[in-house]
């Protein structure tokens, strides 16, 4: 009897943990640390502006400071096309849900700055024209205005 109860408990726990997605986790972290959420929609292996965005902004030290200094929580919703880059079924489903909620037009790249409740504070359609430094400064300024 204990074994059956334990098995049922483990299944229920596993399902509830699985149900929490990256955005939910990001919202919790943002609330705890007074951070913003940066949600980026990209096509990492087919969208040239997306690839440039990641190389010229997201992968820079200046941008990474936003994460290490607890300014933002970064969430990437990627939609790769090449078979070798395909995501798990769960990740595809989660990214599709994020797109339904925040990117119904299917824009790539599309970047959103959200508050801890998921409210959109700022959006960038396409590749931002500014440098990584200017992009990061804009996010810092928005966070400062919210304090």
UniProtKB/TrEMBL annotation:
SUPFAM superfamilies: Thioredoxin-like. Residues 1-147 form the Thioredoxin domain. CDD domains: TRX_family. InterPro entries: Thioredoxin-like_sf, Thioredoxin_domain. It comes from the Bacteria. Pfam families: Thioredoxin_7 (PF13899). This is Thioredoxin family protein. It comes from Chryseobacterium candidae.
């Amino acid at each position: 009897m204990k074994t059956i109860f334990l098995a049922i408990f483990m299944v229920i726990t596993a399902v509830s943990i699985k149900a929490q997605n990256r955005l939910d986790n990001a919202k919790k972290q943002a609330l705890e640390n007074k951070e913003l959420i940066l949600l980026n929609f990209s096509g990492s292996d087919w969208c040239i502006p997306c690839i440039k965005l990641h190389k010229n902004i997201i992968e820079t030290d200046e941008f990474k400071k936003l994460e290490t200094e607890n300014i933002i929580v970064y969430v990437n919703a990627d939609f790769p096309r090449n078979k070798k880059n395909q995501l798990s079924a769960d990740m595809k489903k989660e990214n599709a849900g994020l797109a339904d909620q925040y990117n119904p037009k299917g824009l790539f790249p599309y970047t959103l700055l959200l508050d801890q409740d998921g409210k959109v504070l700022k959006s960038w359609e396409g590749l931002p024209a500014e440098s990584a430094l200017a992009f990061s400064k804009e996010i810092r300024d928005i966070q400062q205005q919210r304090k």
